[in-house]
Design goal:
The complex is a heterodimer. Chain A is an alpha/beta fold. In chain A, the strands form two sheets. A five-stranded mixed β-sheet of chain A has the order 1-2-4-6-7. A two-stranded parallel sheet of chain A has the order 3-5. Chain B is 86% helix and 0% strand. In chain B, helix 1 packs antiparallel against helix 6, helix 4 runs antiparallel to helix 5 and helix 9 packs antiparallel against helix 10. Classes of the chains: A alpha/beta, B mainly alpha. The interface between A and B is medium-sized, with 19 and 28 residues.
Chain lengths: 101, 612
Amino acid sequence: MVIRGAVLIHRTGQYLNRESAMALKQELLAALAQGQNQVVIDMTDTISVDSSGIGTLLLFQEKVTQLGGSFRLINIRQAKLVKLFRAINLDRFIRIEYSDN
Amino acid sequence: MQMMASDMAAQVADDITTDVQQSILALDKLIKITEEKYSYIYETLPLVEQDMALSCRELEIMLAHLIYKNPAAGGEPSLIRATLDQVLGQMQDVTESFMDECLIQTMEDIFLQDASGKSSSFAELDKVVFDVEVFIDVLRDLALNSIIYSVKLGNAGSAFQVLSDRINQVSLELRHRFDLMKPAIEKLNQWNEDFTSRLQSYIDYQVQFKTDQMQKVQLQTREVDETLGTVGQMLEDNLRQVQVVFSKVGQMMVMIQNQDIIRQNIENLMKCLHIVTEKKNLTIEGQQEHLLDYVVFVERVLELAQGLVANVDEGLDESLGGLQQVLAAMTEDSRVIETDLSQITQGFVPGNAADNPLEVAFGLVQDQVQNLGQARDWIMAESGVLRARRQEFVDLMTIVDNNLEEINHQARTLKKMRILIKIELARVDLNSSFTVESIVDAIDQVIQSINVNQQAFRKLSDYFLKNLASFDRCLGLSTQRLQSADLVMEDLNYRLETLHSLTSGAIAAMETEMLSMFTQLQRVTEKLQENEDRCQLTLEVKSRISSALSHTQMLRGRLFDQYEVSHWEEKEEALREVMQQFTCFVERQALTSLTGQLEEDIGSVDGDIVLF
């Protein structure tokens, strides 16, 4: 996790599944407890997300918004992931920036 | 004598002190063990609660997004509902690319049976061709009349012989052309029969599909809605129950606060016992008064300590017992929830089509998408066949057209004969002009009829070909749209599968969390239930104090005998010293028995004494 200015950037690994989602949860909770409410999730390396991963993203989108902050996903580049997010209309609920590459 | 009493007292005091010191050590261990238990609960349960709260909230959000309307998004439909709407919409679009009502009507008008039982357009086509037979009959009569006239005129009528021959030639040519057209007409009629039958099936299939299948899809998406509603309700109930289970954590956190009081009680008891060990020095001085003071004091304090130990033991039992009870209830409730959730999850195992309501529901919609695909394939195949049959029609019409063109050519030949007749007319007897005029008129009529006939055919042909061209274009457009339906249906299936997988995954993840919660609660329960050490230590303290008390009572008895006294009063200062230890907790009975005369002084002790 990296903090640039007021923004907290967390780069997820290859798989956002139950185990990695739990770790992400703990890190974000700690960050929110310290007052960080501008959160960016960098998914450059991520190739797969399951329901636990999506649940965690939605959960923290809610939490950060409740704190008056912002939450977004960036660098979604894997075709499979782009297809998944578009199929479930995730961008209706979370701000997503798809990579051009 | 004094020496004997002093020696005996010192010996007994040593024993008493040993017992008391061992009690103090045991109490120290008791504090540590007890605090360990409380700390474990204090540190563990809130984390378990937090994890469960997060997991429950996650599932609530997932359910809200997937199944229910999402209030956060301004009441927009859920993902599944939105996707099903898209499925319906896209299936509707695909079926719209089937033939629309306007085209169906056009095709029916051109090719299909009307109310009179005979296709009007094809009837006209038949007539156009069979009129040629009429022309042949007329020409035959003309030829006959010409011959008759020729015979009548003799040598002067040679031109009419020529005329008759030429008319016969035309007639023969017309017959030849008719014979070529007749099989083409028969084939066209056969074509019409096959084509109309095929087209009728083509139209009927699509009409039926559009109504029946779309009704089925709408019905089945409603079933998916209902199933999801039921599933969502079951899961919501489960989540509520989880919240009820964890509402007890707060209660436990409050109960844990008792540990401070219990600890204080144990420490107070230890301080009292320390005083007893310190008082041992009195025996060293050996004076009667000191010895009697010591023994009476120690006896009363040990009696008090007995009461206090029992109280501490009871307090610990109550506190830990209470915690165990609440925890046991939580564990049992979580086990029930986990079992329920496990059964629900079993029903969502992917591939378990028979029992998995989601799979059944989604499967129904996916079946319809598949049916749509099959319908599309059939329609495209039939379109191909119909387009091929169109070419057949064009070829047959061309045969007829070419022959009618030849017939028209013959009509031009007849025109030339008309001139010949006019020339001959100038040469012959005026009495025969009427017959000649009537031959000329008849030829004129044939020529005109042939022209009209050909125009009628051309008009019909244009009409058919124009409509067939439209039909062909529509088929082409429909085919194009149906071809792109492949991508649409692939997308629909992917969306449905993804949502199905996500929903099942979310439920399965919840079940895993519940199992983890249940396991952790079990672990905490087991930890609380490890009472052996605590019980042993408490027993040891009781036993030691009891032993010390016995020694003290024995010593008191001996000293009273030795000094020939029946009663000895405790010194007030000594009692105050003991009372000062009880700043937080007082065992009323014990204190009253110890400080009966000093009750009015209770308030003057440092700190507030609170009766528990």
